[in-house]
Amino acid sequence: MAYTARSVRKLAMLQLLLIAATSVIFFMIYGAFQAGSACFGGLVAMANVLLLEWRRWCADSGRALSAGESVRLLYRSALERFVLVALLFAVALGVLQLAPVALITGFIAGQLALVITEFFKTD
Prior knowledge:
Helices cover 85% and strands 0% of the residues. It is built from 4 helices and no strands.
């Protein structure tokens, strides 16, 4: 099932809204550093979803795959997304020294958009 460009835009807008709301709440309660950490966590979630959507588009626009090829593509995509998120978290925590709780909360808020859009999908 292919997503349309409109549904991807709706997902991105919802992600941005949830990330912004989370960042504002952290800013009001804890300050700018925590808000920046939450925002970075949300951007990690957005990068994860963008990679997922790019892989989905590549699979949908390419030739038909056999069952084995589909499973390999699924595993490869999952591994790429896992490594991307792990590297971005390592940069956030190790290099940038961001606040862990705010970072994870922003990531969860960004990923929550996937759940919301799937729950309210009108196919």
